[in-house]
Amino acid sequence: MSEFRLNRATKEWIIIATERAKRPQQFLGKSEKPKLPPFDPHCPFCPGNEKQTPSEIYALRQRNTVPDQPGWRVRVVTNKYPALEPAEKMVKITGKFFRSALGVGKHEVIIETPRHNQTFAILNLKQAEEVCLVCWKRYLFLEKDRRFKLIMIFKNHGVTAGTSLKHPHIQVIALPLIPASIRHPLEEAMSYYDDHGTCVFCDMMQEEFKAKKRIILENEKYVAFHPFASRSPFETWIVPKRHNACFGSITEGEVKSMASVLRRVLRKIHDRLGDPDYNLIIRTAPIKDTLEDYYHWYVQILPRLTTPAGFELGSGVYINTSLPEETAKFMRR
What we know:
A hairpin with a 6-residue loop joins strand 5 (92-93) and strand 6 (100-101). The chain has one domain (3-332): HIT family, subunit A (2-Layer Sandwich), CATH 3.30.428.10. The strands form 3 sheets. A 10-stranded antiparallel beta sheet has the order 3-4-7-9-8-13-14-12-11-10, with helices on both faces. Helices cover 25% and strands 23% of the residues. The protein is an alpha+beta fold. The two termini are 27 Å apart. It is globular.
């Protein structure tokens, strides 16, 4: 019989459809992805094509190399087609009912590697650390801008995940507002803290340690697990063991430790599931809530193994056709 499960952190109900549940190995990629070359002359993110992007904002480079030329290891540029654009200040346009504002913000692209076909899953540890350190440094830089209230760092891997360029890259968007989809989990976390006096994410992590069913791996500073109420097959959370509301508030050592776990998790997804498309999001508190006790930042990975349909879109209740206990066991092996 199917089962409703509640995510205590978000108050989202999930249906685990046991009647039509698939075995973990059934999610292995059905079609072979075309192999990419290490260099694509038509890709604006490949070395030698630096002039096809806006000027670089930041980069990790080899010695004696200059901006907007080859020789970089990780490169940051403004998105050529940004969702939001920088401006001196946010100008609100209000009406009696219909309200709008100028699309002010920042939209950056972190090009993870010079190699066109080298995804995060197959980076070596030093490369993975450098990519995560650049994400962290861009967060620290953007949070100083008083116009911005929320900084989102995310990665779309594959066409079904929303990527338009195959070269491995991460996006950073700084917003002058906090969307309702972000406010809701914050309010739920605050309500839990008011009722229990503890952080719901810390409690969730401790309960996962007790259950010993859904944890994939851990190191000294992080634990990766498939949540009890996973919204889709193989949804993975990477949660820091030290309570902290904000990604920008962690130490350089914690960034490197995160890179180690993230690389291992993505490598498992790559190898076990045949390199599926996925979305990766760093869930962090808004800038003004950096020091709050009720929230806890984490990394969410959502492999695109199923497609939300009418029921999910209409009700907001996701149907998961796999058991998190079984998918976690499959990933641990």
